[in-house]
Amino acid sequence: MAEEMMNNKQIILKHYVEGYPKESDMEFKNSIIKLNVQQGSNVVVLKNIYLSCDPYMRNRMSKLEGSYIQSFTPGYPITGYGVSKVLKYGDSNFQEGDLVWGMNGWEEYSIVTTTQRMPGVTAYAGFYEVCSPKKGETVFVSAASGAVGQLVGQFAKMLGCYVVGSAGKKQKVDMLKTKFGFDEAFNYKEEQDLDAALKRYFPDGIDIYFENVGGKMLDAVLVNMKLHGRIAVCGMISQYNLDKTEGVHNLFCLIAKRIRMEGFLVFDYYHLYPKYLEMIIPQIKAGNIVYVEDIAEGFESAPSALVGLFSGLNVGKQVVMISCE
Amino acid sequence: MAEEMMNNKQIILKHYVEGYPKESDMEFKNSIIKLNVQQGSNVVVLKNIYLSCDPYMRNRMSKLEGSYIQSFTPGYPITGYGVSKVLKYGDSNFQEGDLVWGMNGWEEYSIVTTTQRMPGVTAYAGFYEVCSPKKGETVFVSAASGAVGQLVGQFAKMLGCYVVGSAGKKQKVDMLKTKFGFDEAFNYKEEQDLDAALKRYFPDGIDIYFENVGGKMLDAVLVNMKLHGRIAVCGMISQYNLDKTEGVHNLFCLIAKRIRMEGFLVFDYYHLYPKYLEMIIPQIKAGNIVYVEDIAEGFESAPSALVGLFSGLNVGKQVVMISCE
User: Fold this and answer.
1) Which CDD domains match (chains A, B) (predicted)?
2) Given this model, what pLDDT does residue A116 score?
3) What per-residue confidence (pLDDT) applies to B116?
4) Which long-range contacts (CB under 8 A, 24 or more apart) does A166-171 make?
5) Is A265–B256 a contact, with Cβ atoms under 8 angstroms apart?
6) Domain boundaries, chain A
7) What confidence tens digit (pLDDT) does each residue in B165-184 have?
8) From A233, which residue of chain B is nearest by alpha-carbon distance?
9) In angstroms, what separates the C-alpha of A132 from chain B's closest C-alpha?
């Protein structure tokens, strides 16, 4: 069988990253990929269409030991979630032209043997499974215009909760109220005193905090939680680029207010994916759930899109469209 | 009816306390108490026999706002749990000489209208209800020789867990192994590196942490927790006397390891008291559960006994015997 070869541009992590990631921590590389696939194998060749930029990827840029996830390997392509089109397939479950998604390399073409799942489920599992929400409760979401936050806020509104979100840019704050239907929203960068800001929006306290940022915001939230409140810890993006994380000082509130604070990862909730789709698809079709994506165009824009995530440049879920097909 | 009067020595909080409490923050006062009780009322006159010294009392010495518990009132007696004997009763549920316990003033005689519940249940509810323990799991208890810790360790052993405790004095550490049957114990004051100490005793990590101390120990525990570990937050005694609490830096572990960290107070579990007694009494009689009390003698010793708690002078549950009757 003649070997079919293709040029395959890749984005390589040059070295482990300290502090905020920079575009220069990555480099482009031209490689060659063989497209031959043995029929009956479970190998599929994909043309990648969208790359997803997500905060957890920052952790993978550091040298991690015993973490829940592996570090990227310097000298090799970054990997992440993405949407792809099937080019060649050894597995008869696939056909040419099928759209699939999963964890792939940041490259034009990928050869994979399995497929995996994507975000959305994070918001679904985190809110419904970890927060134990009830109608009428008060909900605070930080990084609320992000990929997960925007969905959590809408789920909470659908359930009849009072929902407030924080973000770091006027455009995002406006969007929370006008686009996603949050009851209130504020720009945390404009607040001298986060405690006072939370007291303004939650005079009687917070039942549920969906935590995406960590640090000072968490400290301010702790003193504003209600008795028997719940904190779902989804992310701590404000801490990922610090050499030494900020200390959290108000954990005694966990006792005084009998708060449950629980970390979670979407990996543990993949079994809910069919249930999630069953719920979300009709809601999206009916226009009850909306989403905002920030689409960077072209493979070359991927490093800057990823780096921008950590200074909040993205408005909504950051993706990179690397192919129109 | 002739009024019956008695001298009633009391221990008064002089002022709100900052930093470590001192004996001089309290003072003795001679007052007079009227012993008359109207038959058919729900009033009971008690002669106090034991006073209980507990870490949560430190919080009540500060000026608290919106806390789970009220501050003591400067100029009035300190209050706390205690065991008392009924002297006079308006309520026919009581007889002279009955031993009762509940929340009373630190004074020789108290006039009360209700009775409440005592510690022990804290260990019971915290371990069985909050920790979700399973046979064979690894359990770490800080302040392990204290009133709550010594029981938690024994409950965990009864269930077939591997149990390690920490304490701050050789005598206490020895007692954990020889008296309470902990598998291992260590003196946290002799460890340069708490992380290394925990790795020595938990090479495969900790399933359950029963948190009594907070601060640096919590930070070291977080990095040594296993996936899906549970932290029951019962107290943070290392932080109670600090003007500014230590920051906790490793909360990202909650996400990476999907840890549930839950604060609790015994108030929420009083309904379990009958179930607790049903379990604990036969175990104590059979010698399966033991306890160590540190009994200070005489009303005059109460302030020093309370103050000593915060530098770990007590060995076991600290009580003050103020009467032999």
Assistant:
1) double_bond_reductase_like
2) 47
3) 47
4) A166/A140, A166/A141, A166/A142, A166/A217, A167/A143, A167/A312, A168/A312, A169/A312, A169/A315, A171/A315
5) yes
6) 5-116+292-321, 121-267
7) 999 999 999 999 999 999 99
8) B255
9) 14
Q: Which fold has domain B121-267?
A: Rossmann fold (3.40.50)
Cβ pair B248:A252 closer than 8 A: no
pLDDT at residue B1, as a whole number: 52
DSSP secondary structure of A52-114: E--TTHHHHTS--SS-SSPPPPTTSB-EEEEEEEEEEESSTT--TT-EEEEEEESBSEEEES-
Q: How much is the ipTM here?
A: 0.77
Residues of A with CB under 8 A from a CB of B: 67-69, 214, 218, 227, 233-236, 239, 244-265, 268
Strand partners, A319: A52, A295
Q: Which segments in chain A show pLDDT lower than 50?
A: 116-117
Whether B189 shows a pLDDT value over 60: the answer reads: yes
The residues with which A230 forms a beta bridge, in sequence order, are A208, A260
Is the domain covering A5-116+292-321 a CATH 2.60.120.890 domain?
A: no
Q: Does A121-267 match A5-116+292-321 at the fold level?
A: no
Which DSSP state fits B71? P
A251 contacts B248? CB cut-off 8 A: yes
Mean pLDDT of B314-324: 87
